[in-house]
Design brief:
The chain is an alpha+beta fold. It is about 30% helix and about 25% strand. It contains 8 helices and 10 strands. The protein has helices spanning about 1-25, 30-35, 40-45, 65-70, 130-145, 205-215, 220-230, 230-235; strands spanning about 50-55, 60-65, 80-90, 95-100, 110, 115, 160-165, 175-185, 195-205, 250. A 5-stranded mixed beta sheet has the order 6-3-8-7-10, covered by helices on one side. It has a 3-stranded antiparallel beta sheet with strand order 5-4-9. Strand 7 (about 160-165) and strand 8 form a beta hairpin. The chain is globular, with a radius of gyration of 23 Å. It starts with a helix and ends with a strand. Residues about 5-10 and about 30-35 have low confidence and may be disordered.
């Protein structure tokens, strides 16, 4: 009787496991694995403790919050904070795009413009509105793309405009920013940081639309908005950027 009982239990366990694996087999493996919690990259997790500059609708500083609190959705809301985006063109007028590292917490593996990040509250000179955003942009160009400091100075950055947008991202991590737009138009040396960038490549204007259309990975929401609404005009006027500058208005999407 004892043997029959053990046999019955084993048979039940076998058929139970068979049903579980059969049901899992009906799901794409990638989809199943995506439901499992993933450990955060320690470099990226540490960066979540940096403090962003909170701003009001008119880009006036009104406090600070950690990157974690600025980018993690709470009831669909995110604090408005200051950011920057750099569009780096070489002297052939090709635009440098980067693919964000797969270890990034926000928008991993997404393609985007040359460099994007935030002025930091704890770096005092980065709190000086435009000049602070320029200083932060140079800091990140060195950190993300390995551009030598001598090739990236605030005076090299041409300020174009500010853009306000919000994106709920993946439903957990998103963006709500007033984004300072800079153009850097020169040849530079690159040595991308693999913790930040998995791919960096120059794209000519004539091939940009086809490139974006055929990508197997998504693009970041801010770059998508800019590519759809502003980029062509900036690209057409690279040698006369005064025609496209808008320093008074914050463009909202």
């Amino acid at each position: 009787m004892e043997l029959d009982g053990k046999y019955t239990i084993c048979v039940c366990m076998f058929y139970t496991m068979k049903l579980i694996f059969k049901s899992l087999g009906t799901l794409p493996l990638r989809r199943f694995l995506s439901t499992l919690p993933k450990p955060l990259n320690p470099v990226q997790e540490a960066a979540l403790e940096e403090r962003c500059i909170l701003v009001d609708q008119n880009d006036q500083e009104c406090g600070f919050a950690s990157k974690r609190d600025c980018h993690r959705l709470v009831n669909g809301n995110l604090p408005l904070h200051r950011a920057f985006s750099v569009f780096l063109f070489n002297t052939k007028d090709e635009l440098l795009l980067q693919q964000r590292s797969s270890t990034k917490i926000t928008f991993p593996d997404h393609y985007t413009n040359s460099c994007c990040s935030h002025p930091l509250y704890e770096i005092e000179h980065e709190r000086k509105d435009l000049e602070g955003a320029k200083a932060a942009a140079c800091r990140r160009l060195v950190f993300e793309l390995g551009i030598p400091t001598s090739q990236c100075q605030p005076k090299d950055l041409q300020y174009i405009t500010r853009i306000r947008y919000m994106s709920e991202g993946d439903g957990t991590w998103g963006e709500h920013e007033i984004d300072y737009i800079f153009i850097l138009h020169k040849d530079v040396a690159l040595d991308p940081n693999p913790d930040e960038v998995s791919t960096a490549l120059y794209i000519p204007k004539s091939k940009m639309n086809k490139f974006l259309k055929n990508l197997k990975h998504p693009i970041t929401p801010w770059f998508k908005l800019i590519a759809q609404n502003e980029l062509t005009n900036w690209w057409d006027n690279l040698r006369s950027l005064e025609k496209v500058m808008n320093h008074k208005q914050i463009i909202s999407y």
